[in-house]
Every structure is written in structure tokens, then in C-alpha cells.
């Protein structure tokens, strides 16, 4: 191989430290080094942004490589090619001479080729005996051979960066779509949550998204969006879980918690529906609903079954159905029932029955996780004519009667042990219902 000497460019082109560095790199070619010129060219093309090479410059480099006759670049061969500008322009798809010179300079600046200028700036080769080239002036391709391993690493890094950029854009796109649609779902489904705050957070993040941004900036914005996604999704998931729990739990109008110390399981209260589920749509269930009393519930019976509604009444007393409806409307916000859910209940059931249902829900509030969701479920069943307030109130009334009777029996036993008689009937004095109604409830099995 011809010894590589440091040469300065011809004409007004100045010498730079970068040119000297390229010449030093080209001089450090290992003995026996060999690479495929087209494989290295593909690596250079993949890493062109990292190298600072332009598309047109790579077109010229491709043309220069075609002037090297061998398929491989070797340390023992002559790596200087010396085509004229006319030949280069022809192989570079006919670009102008000014464009050719500009992009040749780009190849030199990028350290991909080295100029080996003759004394007069012409490109030619001097041959010796036998036609072997002794001295050539033109463009030296030695940096391509010397930096082949570096180009391969840069190509792999560039490919990894492009993949990471593509993935972060996919994450960003999917996250934006999910957040927008989940917020819309939460608002449309009346899910409790700070949806306006979520929307403001989303708009703030997207406002900082530039039209063209580096991967690091997209990563940071995507991380913020994913945090927002997690908050929105958790809000929806919590609500769905609560709705599923309410749908799967026993309806409180047919169940009470057994207070016996020997049995802590939930037992079914006899409410005139037997073992049929009130939400079922079977013929037997429909017949049971139709067999319930047609008359309205007595107000006194409702207040006896649901005493917790009384403190919400004006003056603490409920004398009429209008007083009960007003008390229910005051109790609604503290129970977490939205105005829309309350309006749907009054439209589907009527103001009187809606007030009864809300009083019953308040009476069992500690056993119901989502009161609004439960009320909506009852509204849906009422619209299908599969719901009546009678079993709900009689179940609560029976539960109170059993609790008071047990308390009375416990008190009587204690009095007998202490030698005192029980002169009062606690269940009768605390639960104000008529004996006729009590006998009717026992007769019908409520």
C-alpha cells in the first residue's frame, strides 16, 4: 500500500485539525483489514444523522465507491479513486457542479473521505511498469476501511434510537387516545371523580408538546400522560368494582345480618317472594310482584322501618309524604347520590316511592358501598316493573322487630335473674305499628 502522507487541500480551501484527524485515522489501518464496501456504505447510510452527512453527499459517496473496482476495501490495495467531475456528475444522477462541490466538502468534513490533491488540483494516477499505480491523486477511501467498526456501532445506535423514538410516539398516541376517551366515559356515565381536573391536566401536558420534539422530550411528556392515565383508569376501575360488588351482594331488602353469636352468615328475610331473586325476570317473580298489595305503604310503617330519615326533616318531624320527600332531598347529598340519579328515581318511581327508597337506603347506608349505583339499579328494575317498595320496607321492619324482641327477651332474662319483673314491652313501645298490621305481616309471611 502506498504510504499515506499528510497533504493540504488545493486552492483556497484551508487546512483544519479535522482533516489532520481524518488522515491520522486513515493511517491506523490494521494489516490484513478487509471489509465489504457496500456493507460499510449501508452502515454509513443508517448513521448519516450521527455523522452529519447529507442525502446528496451519500449519493456522491455511492458514486465514488463504484469507481473502486474491487468489491472489498483492503489495507493492501490502493484506495484512492480519481474520477473527473463530469464522470461523478453523471453517476450522481446529474447534479450541478456547484452542488457536487458542496457535498464533496460535506463528505470531507464528515471524515468519510480524504482529498489527495495533486500540485495543480487535477485528479489522475501515475502508473509504473506493468500498469501498476504508483501514485494517485483524487479521493482517498481509507477512512471508510479504518472506521468500519465505528460505522457499524453508529448504525446500531441509530437503529436503536429510531426504534425508541417510534415506541415513544406509539405510547404517546395510545395514551392520548385512552385518556381522552376514558375522561369522556367518566363524564357520560356520571362516574364520581374530578373529571374537570383531569381534563385540565391533560390540556396542560398537551400544550407543551411541540410539533417536532426530540425523543427525550417525548419521553418526559409521555411519562406525565401515563401518570394521568393511571389516575383516570383507577377512578373508573374503582367505580366499576364497587358497582360489581353491589350487583353481586344480596339485596338488602331481602337480607339482614344475623346477630346470633353462633352464626355470622347472612340469612334471607321472608318478604313474600320466597327464594326468588327480585331482579329475576321469570314468570314466578312477576307473579309475586303482582301479588303484592296494591295500596300505598302507610307513612307510619315507613317511619318505623326507617327512623334514620327523621333527623333530616325540618323540625325533626315527618307528618306527611311531602315532609318525607323534603327530608329525602336533604339527605341525598350526604349519601353521595347525584342530582341526576335522584331525578331519574323520582321520574321512574314517583316522588313518594323514590323518597321511601332513599329512606330505606339511608337506613342501610353502612352496608352499601355505592348508594348512587344501588339507586340506579333499583330505578332500572322499577322501569321493568320488577321492583316494589313493600318487600324493602317489610324486610327492614321485620329486622327491627326481631332486634327489639331479642333485646326485650334479654332484658326480661336479666330482670328475672335480678328478681325484678319486666313491666314494659320494649318492642311494642319502640316500634309503633298496629297489632293488626303486625298480624297481617305474620300471616302473609313478611
Key words describing this protein structure:
446 residues; Arc Repressor Mutant, subunit A; 3 domains; 4-stranded antiparallel beta sheet; 8 strands
Quaternary arrangement of the chains shown? Answer: single chain
Mean pLDDT: 77
Nearest-angstrom radius of gyration? 44 Å
Q: What's the overall geometry?
A: rod-shaped
Percent in strands: 5-15%
Would you tell me the structural class of the helices and strands?
alpha+beta
General description of the model:
The chain has 446 residues and is of the alpha+beta class. It has helices spanning 17-27, 37-46, 48-51, 55-66, 85-91, 97-109, 142-146, 148-188, 195-207, 215-248, 283-291, 299-305, 321-331, 339-349, 351-363, 371-383, 389-418, 426-430, 435-444, and strands spanning 34-36, 72-74, 80-81, 114-116, 124-127, 133-140, 255-257, 266-268. Helix 14 (339-349) crosses helix 15. The protein is built from 19 helices and eight strands. The strands form three sheets. Strands 3, 4, 5 and 6 form a four-stranded antiparallel beta sheet that branches. A two-stranded antiparallel ribbon has the order 1-2. Strands 7-8 form a two-stranded antiparallel sheet. Helices cover 58% and strands 7% of the residues. It has three domains: 17-146, Arc Repressor Mutant, subunit A (Orthogonal Bundle), CATH 1.10.10; 169-248; 255-444, no CATH class.
SSE topology:
Elements: H1 17-27, E1 34-36, H2 37-46, H3 48-51, H4 55-66, E2 72-74, E3 80-81, H5 85-91, H6 97-109, E4 114-116, E5 124-127, E6 133-140, H7 142-146, H8 148-188, H9 195-207, H10 215-248, E7 255-257, E8 266-268, H11 283-291, H12 299-305, H13 321-331, H14 339-349, H15 351-363, H16 371-383, H17 389-418, H18 426-430, H19 435-444
Antiparallel strand pairs: 1-2, 3-6, 4-6, 5-6, 7-8
Helix pairs in contact: 2-4, 2-8, 4-6, 8-9, 8-10, 9-10, 12-17, 13-15, 14-15, 14-16, 15-17
